[in-house]
Predict the 3D structure of the following.
Amino acid sequence: MSTRVEPRSTTVALDGEIVTPKSASKASRDRSWRLKVSIGQVVAILLILGVWQAISGNVIPDYLISSPTGVASDTFHLIQTRTMWKDILTTSQELVLGYAIGVVFGVLVGILMGSVKFLSGVFEPIIAGINGIPKIALAPLFLLWFGLGIWSKVAQASMIVFFVMYYNVYMGMLSISPMLVKLFQVMGANRGYVARKVVLPSLSVPIFAGLKACVPFAMIGVIVGEFIAADRGVGYFVLQATQQFDSAGLFSGIIIMVAMVLIGMRIVTFCQNRVLYWQKLGNDR
């Protein structure tokens, strides 16, 4: 009587990494899915550009929406000028400074409010009330305080970023299990060990979610500030193009803004993949 022995799963080397056939099959499916998504995105973009090109000048006047070819030509010429690069540099400085200041204070205040219940009870309604103020209404106030330079735009951006980061971190602190913290303390762990092994891992996901969400919000703050009062910057360029009915220049400025935001989000995603690599390892199992 013969018995059939099922072959055991063996490991194979893939790009220098030892993986099982199951994980290799999953990686193959993931690559196929990403390829399909990329093709779908390209097709959708080409379809939108084709419709835009078709209706420009035929259905809608050219001076209102320009055309993809006109915008591409205008953008190509703009990025070759020193004036535009000065505008990009100014907006980048305001964006980075506003983003960094808002993130730092948002994280610190969120951790503090989530750690001390008394402070949370006292200041949470006050912070919520301030957050209810339309941020654009504060732009003239920041202009009065900080003048026409970059710092009024930095203040506007950091104000918006602060609340996004604060609420992400604060809610992350509230989601930490008190029983888990007490368990570590009963086992003799000090505060530093609990912070490294419990608090930081629990906050890593909401922090990076906030970091990614803050990039476009910081750009909104900067552009609003440049719309109110500025003599340089991408927002100032867009405002000038609007006043001159230069639709191609307007769309070119918007494209540059979007590119800056995408670069910022890409940087955050790169850092997230390096810091939260353990998430990917867990999902691949």
About this structure: Strands lie at 12-14, 17-19. Residues 273 and 279 are 9 Å apart (CA to CA). The chain has twelve helices and two strands.
